[in-house]
Design a protein that fits this description.
Layout: H1 11-14, H2 18-27, H3 38-61, E1 68-71, E2 74-77, H4 86-98, H5 104-115, H6 133-144, H7 149-156, H8 161-170
Antiparallel strand pairs: 1-2
Helix pairs in contact: 6-7, 6-8, 7-8
Length: about 180
């Protein structure tokens, strides 16, 4: 495999050779901030977990969990409260009225025309850009909005769920720095 394909390399190839590791262990404690054995590590994690569970149990017993109650074995969590004050919403409304209505897909296409950022999403092995920048933008939007590939494919009709999955797996990662272009304003 070529350079940079550590993701697909066998795990054994990424480890310190056994002879080097044995020599390091024989020389003294390993230079890592971890316990010497898995049992010690698990015991430490179990201790931290029990400490935190004890704190939660004490808060449950004293009804000290904010917006959470546990009664008769039923857990109830209150819905989140609005974090934006009503005054701020009222102040923003006139400003939003001055903004032109634009679809997010059109905005992404404009930004791509100005910057060429879809050119950064090259194929993992070939290094080529995808033939259809709209498909790349659709995959980016599916991931950015947490809509997912299935629902995005149903909503847009441009690409299938399978194509979006393929695009995400093979194209949605920056491979090289993008050359700066003039925005053309």
């Amino acid at each position: 495999m070529g350079r940079g394909n550590r993701r697909y390399r066998a795990v054994e190839q990424q480890l310190i050779p056994a002879s080097v590791f044995a020599a390091m262990r024989a020389a003294g404690p390993l230079p890592v901030p971890l316990p010497g054995s898995a049992a010690e590590w698990l015991a430490g994690k179990r201790e931290v977990l029990n400490r935190h569970l004890g704190k939660v149990a004490a808060k449950v017993a004293s009804d000290g969990l904010e917006d959470v109650s546990l009664r008769a074995g039923r857990l109830r969590v209150s819905p989140l409260k609005a974090s934006t004050p009503d005054e701020a919403e009222g102040a923003l409304a006139p400003m939003y009225a001055h903004l032109p209505p634009i679809r997010v897909t059109d905005l992404l296409a404009d930004v791509d025309r100005w910057t060429g950022f879809t050119g950064c999403f090259t194929h993992l092995t070939t290094g080529r850009t995808h033939d259809d920048p709209r498909a790349v933008l659709t995959a980016v939007l599916a991931d950015a909005t947490n809509l997912g590939h299935v629902r995005m494919a149903e909503a847009c009709g441009l690409v299938s769920q399978r194509q979006l999955g393929w695009l995400s797996s093979w194209h949605l990662r920056a491979r090289k720095p993008m050359a700066r272009r003039s925005p053309g304003w």
